[in-house]
Amino acid sequence: MTKLEHQRWVIVGALSIALFLSMGTAFDAFGIFLVPLQQHFGWSRAQSSLLFTAMALLYAASMPVAGWLLDHFDARFVIGAGAVFCGSGMVCASLSNYYPSMMAAYALVGIGIGLDAYVPVVVVITNWFNERRGLALGVALSGEFVGLMVMAPVLTRTISSFTWRAGYMVIATLMFFVLLPLAVVIVRTGPRATQERAHANSSADSHAGMEIRDALRSRSFWMLAIAQICWGCSLTGLFIHLAAYMTGVGYSSEATGLAMSIFAGLGILGQPLAGGITDRLGAQLSLVVTFSLMAAGSLSLIWANSLGFLSVYVGTGLIANSPVLLTGILVADCLGLKRYGSLEGLLGSAAQFGAAFGPELSGLILDATASYTLAFLLLAILQAVGALAAFVCIPAEYTHSSAPPALAKQRGQSL
Fold first, then answer.
1. Are residues 229 and 182 in the same domain?
2. What single DSSP character describes residue 42?
3. In Å, what is the CA distance from 408 to each residue of 33, 84, 214, 404, 415?
4. pLDDT tens-digit readout, 281-328
């Protein structure tokens, strides 16, 4: 292994740890604090859940900002800033005694995650890897699932042994003393970021691809945006309600917890597996197949009182988070790398806005129909729409946009 290859995989490991802490710990572990906050402050379930919505929306809103920053500054500064925001938010949460201050704390956490999670991870790996890009992304993205599996019991034990305030301080400590130095010392946007900025080819303008205004007029951008919204909405709309649904159809709390753990555990294996398959099949076909399989899994939940059908859905944990990986590669394939950070940020934001409202959509349908059947059917349809949107993307569309129209060529030749 050459020195450059070794550096690439060290950076992949650092980014995996970044997702371990930002997504697997700070974001996904929100539910661990839900009941302790209700018991301490007497807040309603709706009030407590609104903290997650605020965090998710600020996360979504900050992703385009992260993309723009990555087009202008090195990734170590962007991820480092995210660690500071997230850590500061956790410190504020640990000291909070009122609802408005807790809401402000979660807003800081949301901004921080937007800066140090998916957008910089996908951008950095795309810049470092031409071959085996899918595998590298898969290894990095699996960090989120490892984080959830490792930190959920750690935080639960911390809260039960001490207080929920101590749980927040554990996360803050990890942000300041693990993620921040890790980002600053190891992470770089790409191989050229380790060289002097005086080299002309270090600029984003040296890459082929669309400017943002051109991408916003392209078919591929809007199809990918639709696919991202469908994925985010369907993923959270299903998984957040899984425990309540399983309990309602007769499963024990132990079986429910086991199903959710297996779902997360499969994600650890699924991300590198999806990356390796993508390196062979291509991102577009892989994304179409992924959405189709997820739609089948969503439909199977309608009959989840049968263990076999439930197992089909739980098995989709292997691919549940793969659209992050696949879309990141497909953005580069269709729109190019010239403004890759900004475009990835915009599309990631679309996914998170969908994710923020997915649970609410399922809840509204449940309240209106007293059943999850229509909700699961609708979410399966959204996944099918995502498959169709991915199918009609145009590979290398950025090369078409850069070519002058035939009529213009003819006029130029006649002058």
1. no
2. -
3. 62, 52, 18, 7, 11
4. 888 999 999 999 999 999 998 998 888 898 999 899 888 888 888 898
